[in-house]
């Protein structure tokens, strides 16, 4: 039919009506797991491990290893990236981490200057736990050492008592498996009625969570309620969410600037949300869940509709509203009921979160895991938080990529438009459309995917308080992205490179150079729909990096130490070991060997913890870094004005792989 009527009709229909059903989000810095842990295979083992990514099974990076051997089932040998918190809440003391990602289906743009094929929102968030506050082992944020999903079973009935709840939790949560959201978070979601006002098109959502009603684990995108880690599907699919969540918003990269006030004012960072609280028995402890998702049902059924606040951290030293509320060191303090409390009667002093940043999403092209308009990787500079307690935090970063079509207005299409047969239904599954004449064309339109959210998350990392010596001033992070292999083997992950590629800073700023790698990036079969193999230098499967100065980016041969300017122009402010009077040569040596050596002679390394890192006495470093550690905790440096180029001696392989970067100091 198309041929006789002219193929234009087909083309137009296909371009404008075929919705976008395959699209992905891959986080490259910090390394996104895409649900991988430490697999030697090209594909991840378990796409339900921690969260619902909707991504290709080949994406993601393994958790880092501390040493030159795989951590295996020893979690203490896994490397967590360690970023320094901001030095205070005041301008001039910021720490920055450059987030980098690729998104397959394009984003950003506007009708006038750079038309885009879908609407798109990026939501950047994190969650943390204070490492110096006692947390039950079951509840610790962790990467785990096996790839299984945490277990879960629902209560036998709605009247489960606290003892039974505890045993149900204890049976489910395994210490050797990864954990991000808590077990209670999923339980709450499984047992709370779903939001009946949502547009679910003609999807048939499961009607029974086992206790006789449909719940928040069933959504248009996940109608049967597949479980991924302890993520709550309803919360995953919608943002801003209308109940308290454990996530803090960093930034929303919105469809357009006009939308920012909506995203910002509804963010749980500053907008408290309610939840229904019921008691185990009258006057008893509050339960962590309730069936009721609105005030009327809640109070009618004897619950209390409680308003909860999100927060950065608690400030327990302020015990009254009068002493608490105010601004100190650039941080705002509020008196409110924290969302994760066991005592709903008690307001506490909380360090407040600010409204998230919001900007227009950067433009990127559809069907490409490519760069943005600025010729750089898609990136966002995260202003890391400052925790006034000076406690170290254990954290996870999460990013969602939300695309929708104009086939219906996402903000004004609600449950009144649902169900097959409803005349108002704006989209339906694989519809056939009339093109004139007897034939019809079937569209590939899946209503669980018109309006679809993709996701990636980091492995666990630490946000550390700054030591005194680097307390004030701006601090940037310089890291390495990518994994072992050539471009088709690593795809849709990326090859090695420094990130950011050109760090621009001033003489007063600091940079923390740090990287992590895995010893199990073998990229073995199964390869899924891509290539297997791990082309690269040194021992198969192992990531290694180092940093040595180059004269210019066009060179591939590093400068001998005697000719370098980078190190004599640097002040080494911090290294993770004791190094009084550390010399230019010593920091150059440390960087060049990924931390394998710290000094040349025993007379320079007299501290006990440095004895195993001396050139004169240690087993020789293998020339491709095979016996060097996969991860490098690094150093914090300040540089004098100049431009410094550098490379990685192992991975850089001209015409095959380029791992080079530069720092421009103004
Ligand atoms: C995705 O966008 C839709 C609008 O198209 C919105 O209703 C939903 O809340 C968004 N979800 C997330 C996670 O951003
Ligand atoms: C911004 O995006 C919203 C949501 O899609 C849309 O309703 C609005 O018309 C857009 N505004 C501008 C100025 O483009
Ligand atoms: C450079 O890369 C190519 C392709 O992966 C490889 O064949 C070659 O051996 C590499 N060179 C070195 C010195 O390792
Ligand atoms: C780069 O790799 C190709 C094979 O992919 C090889 O022929 C070439 O020699 C390599 N270049 C270098 C400098 O090793």
From TrEMBL:
Q: Does the keyword Signal apply?
A: yes
The record lists the organism as: Sinanodonta woodiana (Chinese pond mussel)
Signal peptide range:
1-23
Where are the annotated segments for Disordered? Answer: 516-545
Coiled-coil portions: none
Write the protein's name: Protein DD3-3
Q: Where is the composition biased (Polar residues)?
A: 516-525
For this protein, the record's InterPro entries field holds: Protein_DD3-3_O-glyco
Gly residues composition bias: residue spans: 527-541
PANTHER family (alphabetical) = PROTEIN DD3-3
Its keywords, alphabetically, are: Signal
């Amino acid at each position: 039919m198309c041929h006789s009527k002219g193929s234009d009709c087909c083309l137009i229909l296909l371009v404008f009506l075929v919705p976008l059903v395959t699209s992905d989000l891959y986080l490259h810095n910090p390394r996104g797991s895409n649900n991988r842990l430490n697999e030697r295979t090209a594909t991840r083992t378990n796409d339900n491990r921690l969260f619902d990514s909707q991504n290709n099974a080949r994406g993601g990076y393994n958790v880092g290893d501390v040493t030159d051997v795989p951590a295996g089932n020893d979690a203490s040998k896994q490397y967590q990236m360690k970023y320094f918190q901001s030095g205070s809440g005041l301008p001039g003391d910021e720490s920055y981490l450059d987030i980098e990602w690729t998104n397959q289906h394009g984003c950003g743009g506007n009708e006038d200057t750079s038309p885009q094929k879908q609407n798109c929102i990026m939501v950047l968030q994190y969650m943390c736990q204070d490492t110096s506050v006692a947390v039950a082992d079951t509840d610790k944020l962790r990467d785990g050492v096996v790839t299984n999903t945490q277990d879960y079973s629902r209560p036998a009935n709605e009247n489960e008592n606290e003892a039974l709840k505890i045993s149900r939790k204890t049976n489910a949560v395994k210490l050797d498996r990864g954990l991000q959201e808590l077990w209670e978070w999923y339980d709450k979601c499984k047992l709370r009625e779903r939001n009946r006002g949502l547009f679910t098109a003609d999807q048939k959502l499961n009607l029974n969570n086992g206790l006789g009603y449909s719940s928040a684990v069933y959504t248009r995108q996940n109608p049967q309620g597949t479980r991924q880690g302890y993520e709550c599907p309803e919360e995953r699919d919608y943002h801003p969410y209308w109940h308290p969540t454990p996530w803090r918003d960093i930034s929303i990269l919105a469809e357009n600037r006009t939308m920012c006030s909506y995203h910002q004012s509804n963010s749980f960072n500053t907008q408290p949300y309610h939840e229904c609280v019921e008691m185990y028995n009258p006057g008893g402890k509050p339960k962590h869940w309730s069936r009721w998702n609105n005030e009327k049902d809640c109070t009618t059924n004897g619950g209390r509709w409680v308003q909860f606040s999100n927060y950065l951290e608690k400030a327990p030293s302020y015990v009254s509203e009068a002493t608490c509320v105010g601004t100190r060191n650039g941080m705002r303090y509020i008196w409110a009921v924290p969302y994760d409390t066991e005592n709903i009667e008690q307001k506490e002093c909380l360090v407040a979160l600010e409204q998230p940043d919001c900007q227009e999403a950067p433009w990127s092209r559809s069907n490409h895991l490519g760069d943005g308009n600025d010729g750089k990787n898609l990136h966002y500079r995260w202003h890391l938080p400052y925790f006034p307690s000076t406690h170290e935090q254990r954290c996870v970063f999460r990013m969602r990529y939300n695309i929708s079509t104009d086939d219906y207005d996402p903000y004004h299409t609600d449950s009144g438009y649902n169900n097959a047969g409803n005349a108002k239904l704006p989209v339906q599954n694989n519809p056939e459309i009339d093109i004139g004449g007897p034939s019809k064309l079937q569209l590939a339109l899946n209503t669980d995917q018109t309006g679809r959210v993709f996701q990636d998350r980091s492995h666990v990392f630490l946000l550390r308080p700054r030591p005194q010596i680097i307390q004030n001033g701006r601090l940037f992070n310089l890291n390495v992205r990518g994994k072992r292999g050539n471009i088709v083997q690593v795809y849709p992950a990326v090859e090695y490179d420094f990130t950011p590629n050109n760090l621009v800073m001033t003489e007063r700023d600091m940079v923390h150079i740090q990287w992590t790698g895995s010893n199990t990036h073998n990229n073995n079969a199964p390869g899924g729909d891509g290539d297997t193999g791990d082309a690269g230098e040194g021992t198969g499967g192992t990531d290694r990096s180092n940093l040595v100065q180059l004269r210019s980016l066009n060179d591939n041969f590093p400068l001998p130490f005697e000719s370098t300017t980078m190190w004599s122009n640097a002040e080494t402010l911090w290294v993770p070991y004791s190094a009084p009077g550390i010399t230019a040569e010593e920091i150059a040596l440390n960087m060049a060997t990924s931390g394998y050596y710290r000094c040349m002679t025993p007379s320079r390394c007299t501290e006990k913890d440095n004895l195993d890192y001396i050139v004169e006495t240690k087993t020789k470093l293998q020339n491709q870094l095979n016996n060097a550690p996969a991860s490098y905790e690094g150093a914090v440096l300040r540089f004098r004005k100049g431009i410094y180029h550098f490379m990685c001696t192992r991975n850089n392989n001209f015409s095959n792989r380029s791992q080079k970067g530069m720092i421009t100091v103004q």
